[in-house]
Model the fold of this input.
Amino acid sequence: MSLRPDLAKIAELVPEGVRVLDVGCGEGELMDVLRRERGVDARGMEIDPELVEKSVSRGLSVVQGDADRDLADYPDAAFDVAILSQTLQTASRPDYMLDQLLRIGRTAFVSFPNFAYWKMRLSLLMNGRMPVTRHLPVSWYETKNIHHLTVDDFRQLIADKGVTVEGCWFFADGKEIGGSNANWRAEHAVFRLSR
Amino acid sequence: MATALASDLTTLTLGAPLALDSGKQLANVELAYETYGELNADKSNAILIFHALTGDQFVAKTHPLTGKPGWWDRMVGPGKPIDTARYHVICANVIGSCLGSTGPASAAQDGEPYGMRFPVITIRDMVRAQVGLLDALGIERLHAVVGGSMGGMQALSFAANFPGRTERVLAIATTARHSAQNIAFHEVGRQAIMADPDWEGGDYYARGKGPEKGLAVARMAAHITYLSEQGLTDKFGRQLQDRDAKSFGFDADFQVESYLRYQGLAFTDRFDANSYLYITRAMDYFDLAEEHGGLLADAFREASDTRFCVVSFDTDWLYPTSESRNVVHALNAVAAPVSFVELSAPFGHDSFLLECPALDRVVKGFLG
Done:
């Protein structure tokens, strides 16, 4: 099983043997790779009970929880790395969630779909309808993504918060692309952040 | 009230008196236990299962009094989620109970049954006795402790009070403290027993007949708390029992009445009323945070390397998911490796004993 490109990038960047919290861990694919290949002590949080059950039944430590509410339970700096993959845009307050992430983890990885990707812009321009794409495959009324954002929006948020960007990586059509004009060219993005 | 034959029981007498939370001591503590599967050479594959209020050590063996299959037969056995082809499973009757371990029906120093002279015990006292059993069996560190309901309380208490003696803790449909509502239901049961004239202040053993009516009512009330409203509606609705019309009397017109009466009566064949008083009291006294200075996280501070798995059921209103979340919250606060899932099952609190494939997968996966 191969990881989604943003997860594969995160897996490659997480140092060996550290403590990781994967928020929105799904079935635990990333945790499984981190545990097996990098000797990481991985914990997860996932809102969907069926996905939690799958993670637990593969021997991972995953808590069923709502990141909007339950991240507050973890102590400060409990983890070396906190990962938020494709979940920021589902938060009721993404800015608060980012604060929690950087409180719990010394380093945070955040990945999200870029709503300013040129195909999205074109689709919205041409059709005048909310785009439905490979990475945002659900209609506007049933999507969990309630706070769509762009790469530039995210950069603005972390600049306002005084958060340090340690690195950023961009992807389109399942491949990594360079950072120039990322707000146009990237389908999704991964940021490594610290306080 | 029936008693089990000594030949059906495996027992061990603890070498030293047991110091109890009440400050009293219990001498000559006998524990009746059963084992399943082989213990490996380095004694590292043992799993201790704690039973619930009216459970016993016959997890996966035919019950000597009822002749029914073990209470967790569907979960424990070769190739089952708790696989006895891989693990050595131990289950002991808790102290205070009535299937071979020392309880109110046992003989005191004077040779007469304790009755109400039996000391009030706690969940932690039950756990201490079982740690004594592990010591006697030479098992230093368990692969896991597992329990549902009161068994889950013992599992949490074990982790808090004997950290380092287990690698894993699996606590199902349980709580870290008894709520006012939990205590209230238990008090109804105790009052039903003590209001029965045959209770005689607990000295009924010589007569061979106990407060069966009171005990049956206690069981009926408790049984309702183990089921969900939807479960009762699906199973019985308002259907009448063996009749076409209401009798305008007080027979068991409704199927649900008949069912509860049967459950109550059948229970008196296998359980001692005084044991019911003592064990419900132990559960009511249970407050793991209180034992550890008032903060639940402090209970688990020494156990932060232990792997925990906490499971609740969406229809369990006896120990609802919020109680499991309290436990998870405390474990997160000490950064213990914890898994938690609320499973969907229609049967209320009893879901942990019944058909729930998702629970099977979680148990199997967690035990590794």
The interface with chain B takes residues 19, 41, 43, 49, 52-53, 55-65, 73-75, 78 of chain A (CB under 8 Å). Residues 5-114+148-194 of chain A form a domain with the Rossmann fold fold (CATH 3.40.50.150).
